[in-house]
Design goal:
The complex is a heterodimer of chains A (360) and B (529).
Chain A: H1 2-8, H2 14-54, H3 59-64, H4 70-79, H5 86-98, H6 112-147, H7 152-166, H8 169-183, H9 195-198, H10 208-215, H11 218-255, H12 258-265, H13 270-298, H14 302-307, H15 313-322, H16 326-359
Helix pairs in contact in A: 2-16, 6-7, 6-11, 6-13, 6-16, 7-11, 8-11, 10-11, 11-13, 12-13, 13-16, 15-16
Chain B: H1 4-24, E1 34-39, H2 55-64, E2 69-71, E3 79-81, E4 84-89, E5 95-100, H3 114-127, H4 132-136, H5 145-148, E6 149-153, E7 156-160, H6 167-173, H7 184-189, H8 198-201, E8 211-217, E9 221-226, E10 238-243, H9 247-256, E11 261-262, H10 267-273, E12 279-294, H11 300-303, H12 305-312, H13 317-324, E13 329-331, H14 353-362, E14 369-376, H15 381-393, E15 397-404, H16 406-415, E16 420-425, H17 432-439, H18 450-453, H19 459-470, H20 474-491, E17 494-507, E18 514-515, E19 522-523
Parallel strand pairs in B: 1-10, 1-11, 14-15, 14-16
Antiparallel strand pairs in B: 2-3, 4-5, 5-7, 6-7, 8-9, 9-10, 11-17, 12-16, 12-17, 13-17, 18-19
Helix pairs in contact in B: 12-14, 17-19, 19-20
The chains are: A mainly alpha (360), B alpha+beta (529).
Organism (chain A): Pararhizobium capsulatum DSM 1112
Transmembrane segments (chain A): 30-51, 126-147, 159-182, 224-243, 274-295, 328-351
Domain ABC transmembrane type-1 (chain A): 120-347
């Protein structure tokens, strides 16, 4: 309703005042966003730090194992700085993190920053493929379902939506492997690349598709794409459940709005109403839903990554949690948290732009 | 109406496209010159033999490095030459002189010299990482180790020690992965901040073994490449340990022929694969022991030896081994695993609820008793714990199972903040003292042993254990360990239940894969396809 009113009552002075107002607004918004970003990250670091400290896991013991001598154990405690008071440990961590040094992982023995640089591209690749497939199908399904409310497509869309939400994702992943890999031999097995390509393609960007493309080996690129297909489709299926449901619900709720009724009264067909009138109006909402789905995929599709032996950040973080790997938990949480905040900010900005576009 | 089939077509087209792309990459069998192993390598922390102490890393050391001597692959009790062609014990009984094999080379092409032996052993002691306690058994410390190892000439090196142990025991210790010989020149060139090259060796190798590390990506894969300089060249060019964390996916890979070997499968999966064509299930006895640890200091009841005795009659040994673990373990009731010198093989205890009740009643222990039972949050521990919960309940002992992560269970064990727990033990080197030192030494709670974690103070048994490790006569030594095991079996707050059986799924194309009793005894050098 608000959108409709805004569209019908534009501010006549808006365009005249825009330049100066926009400059101030942009700078102010940026500063506001920056401070909120910093506070969010600080809060995230503090909460994660507190949780790792409250957990019963002893990182030093996890590092040296149960057979090690007391002197080795004490040396590990010193190495991890566990002998320092908690506030000192936290401050030291923040200091290092600010310079991009997240310390050394206990579970891999490598710098956390390089672990993240290695695992995050794998997740970004998977999540991006999944969100593209999920959005395309989810939006199409949602639109089709809304346009044919109560029909067969609607029933299928609702079934898929319910199924996508309620079925355990790891189980579905295993079934897909069993069917498409083991039974039909259509898809390759778990992993990002076949063994024959995995060690002949030099990792440059960390994105298997990009690296194999850059290597100039068409077979390797096809192999990377084939390995990506099943886990991406699985995650897409999970994401599209939410996207199609919300698209359908949003369109249906708009159908009763005054501007839609007016358009219908003027003789516009269902296709025109949905694509010309409704979709631009709910674009902000849909964008937010897609962005949130993308952010949650980036947070780590842990079970999918485990089933498909996909070396992403979700698995990295989970393994770190099980092994009491505090530097890895803190580092990965901060990076994923930052992405979440950034994505939210970008979505807000985009939604705002869409809204302003509508005002103009 | 005319849009409905269009939408369906679109969705169908997307799926078809994705699957068609998948189909275009038809899966292939493993390359003929490479062995693909599907397992979890998430535990790997460091491939530096002075630090690595996890299953994945210790399983790689025999393939990357050589030691002066090594345990025989088929009979671990026998010690055979490796980098040392021969050795001689000193008259004082506290030294050994090794003559190095001629012509041995590291993967860098550098020859193996006495300096490399000295560097390797001293750096392991000075680094003081997790497995350092093995060399500390000789009395070696960061301060005295430089004097303990000396070069006699270009082919001889002499080791001396201060601990009250004999050469036979010292030789056993030198078969442990931490005694691996690394290439001093290569490693020193990579050293940073006095780390003896530890940072570099975490992900690289500098050994004279059959393979070298071609690449290692944590949580992804370890790629071993044939060492061209090795005197005993491997049959295959490459061994790839692929990290496949999900066991079901591992099973699929080996079933489909995309992996040659799969490790760590559960009893159900092994059962399903047993009769599958093209696949063999290799069953290898392992030195791992599963036991119950009771904290005798937790309360009066748990400190009563009658409770420990009753517990021994409340375990459904056969049910757990045969029905629950189905071939992945066998009943074993002593602290030395079968295959170690002097291991007791008799099983005097079986599930006997009435007897347990009588033992408890005679000791005045009133039931019901509630006991907190901390257990690893993993299989098969949870299943075993549930079986124990059911059988203990029959005698009025209510086990409150509290699952936890490994380090939490270890930490509680160390600090004595638990009542009862389920643990496992894998020997650190091929000598009875490895286990005896854990279960039969606790003079005054001053050293970290399982006996200390149980609050079981045993000065007399400690003396006997230390006498056993000193004994030079092999037969007498075996008799001493048999006696020790009987005492621990009968009167300790430990209930030894099972000895592990490692089940490895192997494609029938793979020949000559060898795996020994101890955790590090995995060999890929003779494997053919």
């Amino acid at each position: 309703m608000q959108h409709a009113v805004s569209r019908s009552l534009p501010d006549p002075d808006n365009s005249r005042q825009r330049p100066r107002w926009r400059e101030l607004s942009l700078l102010g918004s940026f500063l506001k966003w920056l401070s909120s970003f910093a506070v969010t990250l600080l809060g995230l670091a503090l909460v994660t730090f507190a949780m790792t400290r409250l957990s019963p896991i002893d990182p030093a013991l996890q590092m040296v194992g149960d057979h090690a001598s007391q002197s080795t154990y004490q040396a590990a405690r010193l190495e991890l700085g566990l002998d320092q008071p908690l506030p000192v440990q936290f401050l030291r961590y923040l200091q290092q993190a600010a310079s991009g040094n997240f310390g050394q992982s206990i579970s891999t023995g490598q710098p956390v920053a390089s672990d993240i640089a290695r695992t995050f591209p794998a997740t970004i690749e998977l999540a991006t493929a999944a969100i593209i497939i999920g959005s395309l199908i989810g939006l199409s399904l949602g639109i089709a379902a809304a346009m044919r409310q109560g029909g067969l497509i609607d029933a299928i869309a609702r079934f898929i939506s319910l199924f996508g939400y309620s079925v355990p994702i790891f189980w579905l992943g295993l079934l897909m492997l069993l069917l498409f890999y083991a039974r039909l031999h259509w898809a390759p097995g778990p992993g990002r690349l076949d063994v024959m390509f995995q060690y002949t393609v030099k990792p440059i960007t960390g994105f298997a598709l990009v690296d194999t493309w850059m290597s100039g080996k068409a077979g390797a690129f096809r192999d990377a794409l084939a390995h990506l297909a099943l886990p991406a489709i699985l995650l897409a299926f999970h994401a599209l459940a939410g996207i199609s449901r919300l698209t359908r619900a949003s369109i249906l709720s708009e159908l009763g709005q005054e501007y839609v009724l007016t358009a219908r009264a003027k003789g516009a067909g269902m296709k025109t109403v949905v694509f010309i009138h409704i979709l631009p109006n709910i674009a902000g909402t849909l964008l937010t839903v897609i962005a949130l789905a993308y952010a949650s995929l980036l947070e780590g599709a842990v079970l999918t990554e485990t089933v498909f032996a996909w070396p992403g950040i979700g698995r990295y973080l989970t393994t770190a949690m099980f092994s009491g790997d505090m530097p890895a938990i803190l580092g990965a949480t901060l990076v994923v948290g930052s992405c979440f905040v950034l994505l939210n900010a970008l979505t807000d900005l985009a939604a705002d732009r869409i809204h302003r576009g509508q005002i103009r | 109406m005319n849009r409905r089939p269009g939408t369906a077509k679109f969705i169908g087209a997307v799926f078809s496209l994705a699957l068609a792309l998948s189909a275009s990459a038809a899966y292939a069998e493993t390359p003929a010159n490479a062995l693909i192993v599907a397992q979890s390598i998430d535990d790997a922390v460091s491939f530096d033999p002075a630090e690595g102490f996890e299953l994945t890393t210790v399983q790689s050391f025999n393939n990357l490095y050589q030691r002066l001597i090594e345990s025989n692959r088929d009979d671990g009790t026998k010690i055979q030459p490796a980098l040392a062609a021969s050795w001689e014990a000193g008259a004082d009984g506290k030294s050994l002189t090794f003559a190095l094999t001629s012509g041995a080379k590291f993967s860098s092409g550098n020859p193996v010299r006495p300096e490399d032996v000295i560097f390797s052993l001293t750096r392991a002691v000075k680094l003081n990482k997790s497995p350092a306690f093995i060399l500390n058994e000789l009395g070696w410390t960061a301060e005295n180790v430089d004097k303990a190892i000396e070069k006699i000439d270009d082919t001889h090196v002499k080791l001396t020690w201060s601990a009250d142990v004999g050469p036979a025991f010292a030789l056993s210790l030198l078969t442990a992965p931490i005694a691996s010989v690394v290439d001093e020149q290569t490693v020193s060139a990579e050293a940073k901040d006095n780390d003896f090259g530890n940072g570099w060796l975490k992900t690289n190798s500098a050994g004279s073994g059959a393979f070298k590390i071609a690449s290692y990506t944590p949580h992804e894969a370890l790629v071993l490449e044939a060492n061209a300089e090795s005197s005993d060249k491997p049959k295959l060019e490459t061994v790839i340990l692929r990290n496949v964390p999900d066991v079901a996916a591992r099973r699929l890979l080996v079933e489909q022929g995309d992996a040659d070997i799969a490790r760590g499968l559960g009893a159900d999966q092994i059962n399903a694969l047993k009769d599958k064509a093209g696949i063999n299930v290799l069953s290898v006895p392992s030195a791992r022991s599963d036991y119950i640890l009771i904290n005798s200091k937790a309360n009066e009841t748990l400190g009563n030896p009658a409770f420990w005795e009753a517990a021994r009659y409340l375990v459904d040994y056969n049910g757990i081994a045969k029905d629950l673990l189905r071939g992945q373990s066998q009943v074993h009731q002593a602290f030395l695993p079968v295959g170690f010198p002097g291991a007791l093989t008799d099983t005097p205890f079986s599930l006997d609820v009435e007897k347990a009740k009588k033992v408890l009643a005679d000791a005045g222990i009133k039931t019901p008793v509630k006991v907190e039972f901390i257990v690893f949050n993993d299989q098969p521990f949870l299943s075993i714990a549930q079986s124990l919960q059911a059988s203990f309940a029959k005698a009025g002992i209510e086990l409150d199972i509290q699952p936890g992560v490994a380090s939490d269970i270890y930490a509680k064990g160390r600090s004595g903040q638990y009542q009862m727990t389920l643990r496992y033990w894998i020997p650190d080197y091929f000598d009875p003292h490895s286990n005896a030192s854990a279960f039969a030494i606790n003079r005054d709670n001053s050293t970290n042993t399982a006996a200390k974690y149980a609050g079981w103070v045993i000065p007399e048994i400690t003396d006997e254990t230390l006498a056993a490790v000193k004994e030079q006569d092999a037969a007498k030594r075996v008799a001493l360990y048999e006696d020790l095991q009987k005492k621990v079996q009968k009167s300790s707050p430990f209930v030894f239940m099972l000895q592990g059986n490692d089940q490895v799924v192997i494609s029938d194309k793979v020949k000559n894969y060898v795996q020994g009793l101890n955790a590090d005894q995995v060999y890929y050098d003779h494997v053919e396809k």
